[in-house]
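Review form for a predicted model. The reviewer records the input and the model, then writes brief findings.
Reviewer: anonymous (R2)
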Amino acid sequence: MADSRFRLSILAFALLGTLTACGGSSSSSSANPEEGGPAPVEPVPPVDPVAPVDPVAPVAPVDPVEPEPAEPGPGGGATPGTGAAADCLNGSLYDATATVSLEYTIIGPLSGTSKSDYTITPSAIFEGQASSKAQGTVTTTYTGQAPIVTNVQNFFQMDGLAVNDLGNITETSSLGSVYTTRTVNDPAYRDLKFTLAAGASDEQTIGRVTTVSGGIVPETTVRTTETRRVTYAGRETVTVPAGTFETCRFDFTVAIGAESDTATDWVAVGKGLSVKSVARDTDTATETTLELTSGRINGAPI
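Model under review:
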């Protein structure tokens, strides 16, 4: 799928496991093998103008999610195992001060590495709402290409077992220019995957207002609508370069307009971090896999 905003969304699960999501995946920028360097950020296609964005409305307390029969997961339909998805939520990564360092190997049409260093703080303001913030730097290096450096700020709230994703700000350096993207989820996306029973699913439609500026890109604001379905497939044991982990497997389908892709994310029990993720591009019939090679929380290996 050619839309870089979609690739950013579908692979964002790798960063902090589910620490909201957008703006930090290794695919947030693409590389250009023919020119031997990262491709410039493409201008966002023009759409109908949008009215100024009002502050994000407060999110109501989360209601319990009733299990529903799950369709076979796009990752291959893993048989649901025992163990609650809530065991893979690490609340200290959302409502307390913490540092996180993650390194992944990237396997796919473009291979390389991704290194992320984050600091989580429990007191921030985004669009007039109190929130927590994960702020850090993601450095993506594809083989034979110059590094792509992205500064990321993700804003979110804990709501029981739910995580309210308010939005994010990213700054990407490419070919000597800095591109800034500010995304506001309107209303906030309520990530309910840790509330799901094995085999159950949750589907939501997310409205986003995104402003892109910097470099050769004229400041542009667009409104997009994304439909995201997540299924908790159950427990799986996963071996990656960083070790062997018991994980919660989550299968995702994400659609923007007429385009739809899938992803699978394996989040380590008790750690709350992604140890492996696979994104599938239906346009090119390719897969991109991230596998954890090293991870630390507050300096201690995970």
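Findings: The helical segments are 4-11.
Further findings: The two ends are 33 Å apart (CA to CA).
Recommendation: see findings above.
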